[in-house]
Specification:
CATH topology of the domain at 24-156: Helix Hairpins
CATH class of the domain at 24-156: Mainly Alpha
Mean pLDDT: 84
Largest sheet: 2 strands, antiparallel
Structural class: alpha+beta
Distance between the termini: 55 Å
Radius of gyration: 35 Å
Helix content: 55-70%
Number of strands: 2
Shape: rod-shaped
Oligomer: single chain
Strand content: 5-15%
Number of helices: 2
Strand order of the largest sheet: 1-2
Length: 201
């Protein structure tokens, strides 16, 4: 903290700063609460997406070994469009997944095994969940970063700025009170000496 001057102007400046901090702090705390709620919701959505993917993989575990045949499914299933829109949440712009367009090309029914259709369905759903998870992870990162910054600001105001202002106001009041008491005492002494000089004449 910078050295506080013991003047009335500095006292007013400290009081104004204290009012500003106390007025702004509730807004920061509200933002902090909103961000904490959003982070919890994003975590829940990410966990749900992971559970759906795990359930999907578990359901096809009996025949997923067929993928070891070395078949390249890339030409048959791929993400063609990913529509992500920005959304403002508690002052943070986060990406929100709207749609995932997946192009599926049917393999030749004569030359491919019958399980390829199920495999393409599985891969399409896994691709969709992968895209969803990536967007949710980005949401978590952005919300977490903003929450970290907001926590720092709340702590700065609560633990540093407001106590500094209160302490500065207290010290200035004491110094001004001491100066006023000293001025009154000097005035009385001067008045007493002046009356002594008049009586001695």
């Amino acid at each position: 903290m910078a050295k506080v001057k013991n003047t009335k102007n500095e006292l007013k400046a400290q009081r104004d700063a204290l009012k500003r901090y106390q007025r702004y702090l509730p807004t920061l705390q509200l933002k902090q609460q909103q961000l904490q709620a959003e982070v919890r919701q994003a975590e829940a959505r990410l966990l749900e997406s992971s559970k759906r993917e795990a359930a999907l993989l578990l359901a096809c575990e009996r025949w997923v070994g067929l993928f070891a045949d070395g078949i390249d499914f890339a030409p048959w299933v791929r993400v063609t469009a990913l529509r992500v829109e920005p959304q403002n949440v508690a002052g943070v712009t986060i990406p929100v997944l709207r749609t995932v367009d997946i192009a599926r090309t049917a393999p030749s029914l004569l030359t491919s095994p019958s399980w390829h259709d199920d495999a393409l369905d599985l891969l399409a759903e896994i691709l969709r969940l992968f895209c969803e998870r990536r967007v949710l992870q980005e949401q978590m990162r952005l919300l977490g970063e903003e929450l970290r910054i907001t926590n720092q600001r709340v702590n700065l105001f609560e633990r540093v700025k407001i106590p500094e202002c209160k302490d500065g106001i207290r010290k200035i009041r004491i110094a001004l009170g001491d100066a006023m008491t000293l001025d009154v005492a000097r005035g009385k002494i001067a008045k007493g000496r002046a009356s002594e000089q008049e009586t001695s004449r």
